[in-house]
Predict the 3D structure of the following.
Amino acid sequence: MDVVTTATFGPMCSSGAFLNFGHSDPPIKMERVWLNDVEAYHGNAAVDCYIGATKMSVTRGFEYGGGHVIEDLVTGKEIELKAVAYGTDCYPRKVLETKFTIHDLNQAILCNPRNCYQRYNAATNSTDRTLYTYMGILLPNYGNVNYAGCGELNPLVNDPTYKTIGVGTKIFLGGGAGYVIGEGTQHNPKNGFGTVMVKGDLKKMKPEYLRGATFHKYGVTLYVGIGVPIPILDEEIVENVAVRDEEIFVKIVDYGVPKRHRPVVREVSYAELKSGKVKINGRSVKTACTSSIEIARKIMLELKKWISEGMFFLTEPVERLPLDVEYNPMKMR
């Protein structure tokens, strides 16, 4: 059977990891937890936590956050753990300070609620001031256009009806193997903005494909590398994987307007965005991508090698991703 490998590598803010530390002596039921001064969520069992990619350090702010902690873990660096608790009869300890590496953890599970956007709107700025956003720095007076995603390389673009991508699909995740575990949050296939929820063993991943990052004056995030093999099962899939950047269109929206429904400046193809320039009001404007097409191509080749050498076996989804879902904004009373 022929297989087409697809991939993307970019900032995926809806990412994080579940960690289990094992029990201390005397034991503690952690109430608040910090990893390298980045607060992790503890609403689980006594020594489990979830470190979110966008949580910022209480001491270093924009310079360091959850995404950097995850990268440092994968690199094998020592992480400082601080925890406080209220104390119980079975968990009497109230304060804990120690250091650990990923090898000291029982489990380190990358679990990302929303990754691999099928498409993503581009961003520009009509105002007379510089804006600092999750789409990067937007210069005044339509000074630039930033966009995300790898266009024709993107997994969900190559399988837009999710014939081969669903619950249980085995994928390349962060340099190791992972799985699609469901639709991602804000999954919006009716409008061409599908997403997936993924998980994998953080201990088997590589820092080359999981990188903590800072968006200047906005916040921190995690760059995630995802590769998905698409088996050629029928003619429809052949047509889908033949998609080209010229056929994939996104809207350029004005982030200078602080509303949910930002004005659309124009619609462009990924081919035009990747050319380095687009036209706005008759003027040529530079474009830049927050994703890395180069690393996405590297992931595609790596995944191809794994499959060719029998190191990676494809799996059939046990459940299709929904196609009839539409994203709803927050209800405001």
Remarks:
- The longest strand covers residues 219-231.
- The chain is about 15% helix and 40% strand.
- The chain has a mean pLDDT of 97.
- Helices lie at 66-75, 155-158, 235-241, 270-274, 293-308.
